């Protein structure tokens, strides 16, 4: 509960590193995963479970689930909403049972 | 958790409501599914011609953070990354927060805003094809470039304003096109309807951008004007607006590499003979906005379909009361308009609720009602040009409903 009573604050200063599919990516604290990836030139977040086509963000605000990835072992997290944390492990594996494709 | 009022949505409407209620001593909690408060204000950044010249930047991030600080200082609790999944009568609200599982509240304000309509142009699922809202959020809130060479598909007041913001941020915007006509996309592919919509918006919005289109509104837009558009390209701040060309396909092996462009007839039919390829790495799709109303179905509000407001919305009176006692609405859930209107509606919904609790006088509610009208006039961006007619239709439908219920308004 305490955690979420957010008096709005922009913490655009310190760097945060996390792992994306075996590579280390550095972003800025307060950035969602998809934003940190894009600032590092990474646009593909996962591959479609059925066709194998690459997928990236679409709506950017949590409505479409196109940007989902596995974060610290939890599947189908929306990377446009999930903020980066030091040492976080993000992978393109997605739960095939999720979403209609 | 016991509160007086629960507000769903921490956009401009929801936060302003919370401030007005907390000022009168009510205990208020606001829930929002996003990771920070502000709603669609967070992506907004442009010059507002209605503000004094020295200080005419409308920076939604800053406005959102000021409003949030004010609300928190007044004792409002804002729960982010939280949504409601069930609402029981008078009212027990079940939320997704892990510590606070249910909230007992006397009243509810629904302020869930809007979502974008999809624009399924062929190839739209490729990496690099994004919605105009994503483009706005990534450019203005996150300060990240979504690409280097960009085209827009869908020409409307929102996409034009986002294109200008992106150009301002140093992104190369190669042009704005209509979507190829299909079963799903028809009006958006019609040059005449597009121009009429822009011209109507320009009539209401007094800024330079739309004055360019305003000149077309004098007299009916004739086919002659549209034929001329083929030769006379409209440019806004250097961005070409192609009202007679459509993107028929987004191409690329692994991600967006190019778009195919074909000419459109005055009536919006594709000219099959000529096609051109434009090399880009990003495509921004603008399909228009819809009120986000699923929360009103959780409380069983009566719904009505009013296309002039943007689609299906909860039935409500002029003071933003719905058909369910104790449930109010504010902001884009009532119809698609700009942020200033959402803020004014947030205040109106709060005062309407306070009036029902006998905590304010009628004059204050009337004053808040009038402020919504003023905000509407002062809005630099108009999404649905016939919004005022839409509001009148809503008023009539409410009276009709009250008649059926046998209640005197
Ligand atoms: C992509 C996009 C771009 C826009 N650009 C502009 C612009 O440039 N200028 C302008 O004036 N207007 C713009 N608008 C219109 C915009 O909707 C209004 O400016 C204004 O933000 C509406 O305020 P609101 O409070 O009604 O909704 P919003 O600002 O949309 O806020 C609603 C909030 O409710 C939350 N929410 C929704 N459903 C739930 C739920 N079930 N549970 C919990 N939380 C929920 C959302 O996360 C969001 O934070 C835009 C709208 C969109 C969709
Ligand atoms: S991009 Fe749509 S949910 Fe993340």
UniProtKB/TrEMBL annotation, chain A:
The entry's keywords:
Oxidoreductase
InterPro entries with a match to the protein in the record: 2Fe-2S-bd_N, 2Fe-2S_ferredoxin-like_sf
> What residues form the membrane-spanning segments?
none
Which GO molecular function annotation, any one, does this entry have? oxidoreductase activity
Q: What is this protein called?
A: 2Fe-2S iron-sulfur cluster protein
- Organism, by scientific name, is Ureibacillus acetophenoni
Automatic annotation (TrEMBL), chain B:
A GO MF term: oxidoreductase activity
Q: What is this protein called?
A: Thioredoxin reductase
Q: Which InterPro entries match?
A: FAD/NAD-bd_sf, FAD/NAD-binding_dom, Metab_Enz_Cyan_OpOx_G3PDH
Q: Which Gene3D superfamilies match?
A: FAD/NAD(P)-binding domain
Residue span, FAD/NAD(P)-binding domain: 4-173, 235-346
Keywords in alphabetical order: Oxidoreductase
Source superkingdom? Bacteria
Q: Where is the signal peptide?
A: none
Q: Which organism is it from?
A: Ureibacillus acetophenoni
